[in-house]
Amino acid sequence: MDLPPDVTQPASGVPERRAVSDAHDDQPGGEDQDKPDEAADADEETGPPLYKRPKFWIILIIIVVVASLGGTLYWLHARQYESTDDAFVDAHIVRIAAEVQGKLTFVARDDNRRVSAGTLLARIEANAADASLDQAKAQAAQSVAGIEQAQAQVIAARAQAEQARAQARDPEAQAAKAAADLLRYLALQRLDPAAVAGTQIDQARQALQSANAQAAAARRAVDQALAQVRVAQKAVSAQRAQKAGAEAQIRAANVTTGHLDVRAPVNGQVVNRSVNLGSYVSPGTQMMAIVPDDLYITANFKETQLTLMRVGQHVDIHIDAFPDVHFVGHVDSIQRGAGQAFALLPPQNATGNYVKVVQRVPVRIVFERPGPGSPDPHRYAIGPGVSVEPTVKVR
Questions:
Q1: In this structure, is the dihedral angle defined by the CA atoms of residues 62, 68, 72 and 73, taken in order, positive or negative?
Q2: Is the model's pLDDT at 133 over the cut of 80?
Q3: Residue 139, SS3?
Q4: How many angstroms separate the Cα of 268 from the Cα of each of 119, 295, 362, 376, 386?
Q5: Quick one: pLDDT band at residue 195, thresholds 50, 70, 90?
Q6: Do the Cβ atoms of 97 and 248 come closer than 8 Å?
Q7: Rounded to whole angstroms, what are the CA distances from 234 to 146, 149, 151?
Q8: What percent of the chain has pLDDT over 90?
């Protein structure tokens, strides 16, 4: 059987039709007519490279200018401040301790409450102190009585001395008369030995010796009386010293009695109470503590941040516990020395493996007085140990 020209006889005997496209491909100019259109479309889709487009450079220049301007403004602003997160609220905490021993008969329930200076916080049992005070007063009264008795003895001793002087006048006069008689007899004997007998002269001598002895005894009696006066005066001085000692004991007992009432020495908040009613305390036993109203901030700045830092510079204070409250303050003082220099065991840097580390220097910052734009820190639960981020304006 004869087949058409476009059909071939396969080996299997089934006729196969050639693709009609072969005839189309054989037509001159059929494929080449579509290529210019496709190339034009591709050129329109890709276009020139991105870096050759003016819009790209315009946008890039704008971004660089804005970034440079923003970085410059940020640097100009940031260089005016020094900040640290190594800062905490601090205060001179007052430790309240007993000064005498005894049992507590009263303890105020002022935990975490503010108290004023002079507020009664606790009272110690007063039995022993009252007994000591009464004993001191009794000793003082006894000393007063002793002074009066000693003064009476002085008066009596002076009277005895006056009496002894009076009694000594007669022996003195007798001794003077006997001395005059003996001199007269001796003078007569020199003029006329026969005028005066030897016995008269001997009697005059004996009378003089006897009178001198009596006068000496009278003088000793006077001296003894005067010695008694001095002894009585010493007794008065001793009694007065005993009175002064008793008065000192009274003052000491009054001080002890005053220490029985434990009062707040400063205005502040009572914290860390460790005693209760009936507790027994001894001198030095810590009972509670008071955080005073005078709070401040200890900020540990790096030593490289202190170049432009001065006392009195303004400080913006950010407290972690109250992030929405803007506290303000100023630099009060800068410690002369890094914190590690005051450690219990200061580092020994004289070693071969020394590595330099930037040190921290404590800076004290105080809160500004409450006013417009300056909130009162006492109205917030701020105390020692609270984290703070101060920012000091140094330029």
A1: positive
A2: no
A3: helix
A4: 11, 10, 24, 15, 17
A5: low
A6: no
A7: 12, 12, 10
A8: 29
Q: What is the pLDDT of residues 112-131, one digit of tens each?
A: 899 999 999 999 987 766 77
Exposed / middle / buried, residue 191 (Cβ in 10 Å: 0-12, 13-18, 19+): exposed
| Buried-exposed string 111-144: b where 16+ CB fall within 10 A, e elsewhere | eeeebeeebebbbbbbeebeebbeebeebbeebe
* H or E segment to which residue 201 belongs: helix 198-259
- Write the CB contacts of 275 (distance below 8 Å, at least 6 apart in sequence): 104, 107, 122, 281, 285, 287, 288
Q: What is the third-level CATH fold of 128-259?
A: Helix Hairpins (1.10.287)
The rounded distance, in Å, linking the Cα atoms of 385 and 298 is: 10
pLDDT in tens, 199-231: 766 666 666 666 666 667 666 766 777 777 777
C-alpha span between 49 and 136 (Å, rounded): 110
Q: What percent of the chain has pLDDT over 70?
A: 71
Most confident of 8-22, 60-74, 82-96: 82-96
Q: What is the pLDDT confidence band of residue 140, given thresholds at 50, 70 and 90?
A: confident
| Domain positions in the chain | 7-28+33-78, 84-92+293-393, 94-122+264-289, 128-259
CA 204 – CA 48 distance, rounded (Å) = 167
> Apex CA 193: angle with CA 191 and CA 196, to 5°?
100
Does residue 42 register a pLDDT over 60? no
Is 390:318 a contact under the CB 8 Å cutoff? Answer: yes
* Structure tokens belonging to residue 293: 């109203």
pLDDT, position 21: 42
CATH of 94-122+264-289, one of 2.40.50.100, 1.20.200.10, 3.30.450.180, 2.60.40.10: 2.40.50.100
CATH 2.40.30.170 fits 84-92+293-393, yes or no: yes
DSSP 228-251: HHHHHHHHHHHHHHHHHHHHHHHH
Q: Are 298 and 362 in contact (CB under 8 A)?
A: yes
